UniProtKB/TrEMBL annotation, chain A:
Signal peptide: none
Gene3D superfamilies associated with the record: 3.30.70.20
InterPro entries: 4Fe4S_Fe-S-bd (IPR017896), 4Fe4S_Fe_S_CS (IPR017900), Fe-S_Ferredoxin (IPR050572)
Name the UniProt record assigns to this protein: 4Fe-4S dicluster domain-containing protein
Amino acid sequence: MDIRVDTDACVGCGLCVKDCPMDVYELRDGVSVPVKPKNCMGCLSCHEICPAQALEHRGIYPARRHYIDMRVCEMLNRVI
Amino acid sequence: MMTASYIDELHESFHTDIVYRSEDIPLECTPRPSEMEETLHGVMKLNGLIIRSLEEIAGRGANAVTYRAGKKFGHEIAKYFQKRDDVEEALHELSDLLRGQYTFEVWKPEDKENFIIEEDGQTFIYLVFHDCIVRQTLRRNGQEQGGPLCQTLFGYVVGAIEEITGRRAKLEIVHTGPNACLKKLILK
């Protein structure tokens, strides 16, 4: 797993550090650093919890998301 | 001992080159849900309501009810499958059984050598559940993960493993997430 942190966006809140059960992240100089990316199992809790949306995972398996209302997504894409 | 080819094959099936960003808005799912969306969402809503009501009435007893229901279902489904002593083969069998509802892979942290881990007198295997109809139902209804509906999956896996291998087993949540959940299959 390749995890990238946007260091300009990261506010150093440490939520990803606390949330990750596999200690993938560490705070260094006020910024989150993925120190054990191989321990990441791709749950994406850190994405959900990151207030700055500073994270990017490469090589992830995206689970099926049939619960999503496609009409809402299409509408959002028209607006954004 | 789990064979390398099976593990590699399993891991390969969950490896992609997809880049996932927080701000991404999905435009499509596979398969496209447009034809079955209303029915599927209806079932999800109904399930969510049943579970919510069960929790309100039975409190913590709801977990026992749903676990029992899942376990019965697991035993029921797996009894038609070949009995095996080997846990690896049983998991392989189970992944075939669950396809379409749940997909999972065996997983280990970087510092562990084997997938079957012995620690503090326990023998266990980590399972990462990727696709899960329970998670989708809960997220559709804005309900928390790890509650009674997750117990049905626990019961299902435990029941099926017990039926296939004849060994007692237990499943524990280690972590729940929007894209995958880490679970511990404890073998007795």
